[in-house]
Amino acid sequence: MTSRIAILISGRGSNMLALADAIERGEIPRAELALVISDHAHAHGLTHAHTRGIETLVIEREGRTRDAHDTEIIRALEAHDIHFICLAGYMRLLSPSFINAFPNRILNIHPSLLPAFPGLHAQRQALDYGVKVTGCTVHFVDEGLDSGAIIAQTCVPVLDDDTEETLSARILAEEHKLYPRALKQIIDAKFEMQDRRIRL
Ligand code: GRF
């Protein structure tokens, strides 16, 4: 059976493209990219999605409460018969009703080795802290900030002369490999979850 995937973005959309490319190349054989939703009409990622012929929707957050916004998104996801949702640079916490509507079916990618450096500017947080290794994490989404069960992680070295830009670029290159791999593992259902420990 094919799983219909939706990707939620707010901006650049490079992880969305990495997922789209992997699906197009047949690397996630049981996935079909059905929909990209942006909460900003001017998100760059939307242009890339259009170019690829991927169906897109803009559901602006402006002027809506979080619950009203999420309710509209849930409606769109259900109307498109979506099985899995990938957040990719989607800059809003999801409401409990959103999470409960798709239990263990919402994934996110974050540019640090969680639980270190959740939230905004994870790469700058890593540099400021002085860690020698950081990375990226794909995790299930829960009601907290980057706090859901961890699916997969990749380590990236922090170099002495790194700036936020150079470190972010090194992490991003790994994000683009990790996200498709983690999505495939979850779709293939080759995982066990005990409390918050996932064994793939
Ligand atoms: C990525 O670094 C991702 O880990 C974080 O936001 C950034 C989004 O980048 N959640 P992009 O929009 O996928 O290019």
Task: Describe the protein in words.
By secondary structure, the protein is of the alpha/beta class. It folds into two domains: 1-102, 3-Layer(aba) Sandwich (Rossmann fold); 108-200, Formyl transferase, N-terminal domain (Rossmann fold). It is 36% helix and 24% strand. It contains six helices and nine strands, in the order βαβαβαβαβαββαββ. Helix 2 (44-51) links the parallel strand 2 and strand 3. The protein is globular, with a radius of gyration of 16 Å. The structure holds 5-O-phosphono-beta-D-ribofuranosylamine. Residues 9, 11-15, 88-89, 109-111, 172, 175 line the site of 5-O-phosphono-beta-D-ribofuranosylamine.
Keywords:
2 domains; Rossmann fold; 7-stranded mixed beta sheet; alpha/beta; 200 residues; 36% helix; binds 5-O-phosphono-beta-D-ribofuranosylamine; two-stranded antiparallel sheet
Q: Give the end-to-end Cα distance, rounded to a whole number of Å.
A: 20 Å
- For the residues shown, what is the average pLDDT? 96
Overall structural class, as computed from helix and strand content, comes to alpha/beta
The tally of domains stands at: 2
Number of helices: 6
Order of helices and strands: EHEHEHEHEHEEHEE
**What small molecules accompany the polymer chains?**
5-O-phosphono-beta-D-ribofuranosylamine
CATH class of the largest domain: Alpha Beta
Oligomer category: single chain
Main sheet, how many strands, which sense, barrel?
7 strands, mixed
Molecular shape: globular
- CATH fold topology of the largest domain: Rossmann fold
Q: Numbering strands along the chain, what is their spatial order in the largest sheet?
A: 3-2-1-4-5-6-7
Q: Which ranges are low-confidence, i.e. pLDDT below 50, for 5 or more consecutive residues?
A: none
The percentage of residues in β strands lies in 15-25%
Radius of gyration: 16 Å
Helix amount, in percent?
A: 25-40%
